[in-house]
Amino acid sequence: MARFDFCGGSYTSQAVAFDCQRSVNLYPEINESGDGKSKMALYPTPGLKLLTTLEAAPRAQLEFNGRHFIVAGTKLYEGIATLDIHGSFVSLAMNVLNPATPIVNDFLPASMAANETQLLIASGGFVYVYYLATMTDSVTLLPVAAGTFVQVPISSFTLPSGNAPVIQVAFCDSFFLALIANSQTVCISDVLDGRNWDQNGQIVVSVYPDNIVSMIVDHREVWLLGRKKSVVYFSSGSLSVFDVAPGGYLEQGSGSTFGPALLDNSMLWVGGDDRGNAMAWRATGYSAQRISTHAIEFAWQGYPKISDCVSYSYQDQGHAFWVIFFPSANNFLGATWIYDTATSLWHERDFLNTTTGIAQGHPSWNHAFAFGIHIVGDWGSGKLFWQSINFFDNNGTNIIRLRRAPHIANEMQWQRYSQLELDMDVGQGWASDDATHAMNNIVQTPKVFMRFSDDSGKTWSNAQSASVGFQGQTKQRVVWRRLGRSRVRTFEITFSEATPFRIVDAYVRGSNQTASERLPHMLRKSA
Length: 527
Prior knowledge:
By secondary structure, the protein is mainly β. It contains 3 helices and 52 strands. The chain has a domain at 2-45 and 402-526: Galactose-binding domain-like (Jelly Rolls), CATH 2.60.120.
């Protein structure tokens, strides 16, 4: 039998005859020892468990100093966790922090930043301050109690044309920053005070003509990304407060306001330049390194727009994942793409809508690592989920995991396929006497399904199942036999049981059909 590099990431080219690989709800991990059975395995992406349901979709999350804040609908919440005696997470309760002053809800992502005494929020064009500690107001010189929630006067954020909406906020070197929408202007707060903005003026970008699309702080530097160009500022201590960093100019910009994210000691974003759009970039110093592939770019550039894409990042099991959600993709069902900096490979994640029976984008668009767990907010509801590799379904909904392998071909010669064997972690399912998985009083074993294509992924055979064994059946073989012949063969595996699904490799047994083997068949046909 021969292996054929079954495991890998997603790469569906515009010519599917060239390559049509997919990894959906499975991510590759490279064998770092170099001595494993194969060079790469496929592991299941994390499942979800419901923590709580808020009044509307969570639009932003921020954790710092052990506190967890969420903007959802018109409310600011603080998550209050219950921990066991070992400090492990048990449950999450919600405390509303702004009962009298609603936050304007524009149904778009909100933005949050904080220092030691204040939490700053931008939502619906307005800016709000939540006081984390008692402090003296710099205008009235009166104390402001911890827990106070106020709206910053809109007159604090102005353009020559008048008051202006704020789309993002950030914090850098003792100053809050507020990006004014559809402008080249960023307002600078007073020192350590997001309530007052009348002392330090503004940053006005003049090195490129476009408006600033997105703002993000990385390594104590403020990155201001336009549509096609970007510039980096630092806290210089001059009268301007912030000045352009030497060499801090990039020929690439951002395609969306909430697309950039920080991970793996760098910044990643979706954008373009004067020549085109919808590429993924990673900052290497003040240079942009392309990390998307032609296949990824072909998919993204087919979406109605990318200006609404939202991303977040998280680290789990040593993998730093960048999760990008495109709301407008697939007729507004959404699409979710993930880049793994550990392997430099892409995979996809989705969610099965049990009402429609149709897959849609993964139900997360923001994230916080709080209380020792990964918490994600659902873009389509008010739900907050606990995300973990120890969960094998999405809060009771099966996760359909799919691997479409590379094409197998030998210069388009006929090949027979007598056997396909999937090398995987078997015997991890339920027990043979588990009545919850019984049908007609017979307990059903967990199954994996295989289908194949003989025209490079354009049409497919019927799916054939194989058992992956009951719990403890660790010598179970997952095999399909008598698979016919083809000039090109593409195998696809799917699995949806709420059990671990870890693929090590796959092997095929077959042979080329030589001219002497074909001749008797040809003679019989002519006779």
